[in-house]
Amino acid sequence: MAACILFILGLSSCASTANPTRIGESSNQIQPNTIVVNGSKISYKIIGQGTPLILLQRFRGSLADWDPALLAALSASNQVVIFDSLGVGTSEGEIPNTLGGAADFVVSFMDALKIEQANILGWSLGGMTAQVLAIKHPNRVNKLILAGTTPPAGDKSVHLAPDEWTAVATKPQNSAADMAYLFYTTTVVGVKAAQESQERFEQVHQRGVETKTSPEIIMPQAIGARAYMANKGNWYEQLAGIDLPVLIANGDSDIAFPVTNSMVLHRQIPNSNLVIYPDAGHAFLFQYADQFSDHVNQFLRRE
């Protein structure tokens, strides 16, 4: 295994001293564009300038489910590309029921935008798709960021999301309280972070009470995720062959994919770094938007 760097972000010099990100009007007011990919109209946004950084969304997530603070922080130094994948949100098409199919679509989307190679940031389900993308199409990925995600269950240390969490995550509609449970801790810090994130979303659009997804969307995504997590296709073994710089990040209290899963990813992928954020859950990248973006940018600048 190549040399790896382990960062534990706590109340130390590792913590960012940057001022809290201001939500830029330019990010919030950009209207989605559409582009035809393999015959389907796909909604997307491009925010900022620089090297393309393509964000792959979570289970049931759409364009509207990225925290504005994260988009503002990342787009200050990158050309951030976000999109509704096939059949999600306002995009047309049929959702792939394998993560291999989802990864292939990312390549087709890049081809349509004439992006030969990009940095890829995948969160949760998007992080699983990003792993498959790096395995199947390594020449299209420059650097890889895996946020709040999991490897397949090829190691006994990998834990699947508890039934209670999954039951809430698959509700036809999620309340603001559901979102807080799914993505944040129940400590004073976590409750405050959940409230602040919800307020940022509500500056842009109503979120939480209704979703833009349905059982028709949930089912194929769930089938693909379950197959990957069951290691159908031997994806776990293939992680060791990823020959790209990889940044792995998670909150220390993620219920969906415990931090031990991130540690397994770190051990399995040779050229990887690991960052853990304190008192944070699945949405640590929203809670620590500035600090996470700082780590991402440092990683992307590193030779």
From TrEMBL:
Membrane spanning residue stretches: none
Keyword entries, A-Z: Hydrolase, Signal
GO molecular function terms noted in the UniProt entry: hydrolase activity
Gene3D superfamilies (UniProt xref): alpha/beta hydrolase (3.40.50.1820)
InterPro entries according to UniProt: AB_hydrolase, AB_hydrolase_1, AB_hydrolase_fold
Keyword Signal part of the UniProt annotation: yes
Signal peptide as annotated in the record: 1-18
Organism expressing this protein natively: Arenicella chitinivorans
Sequence ranges assigned to domain AB hydrolase-1 in this UniProt record: 52-286
Name this polypeptide is given: Alpha/beta hydrolase
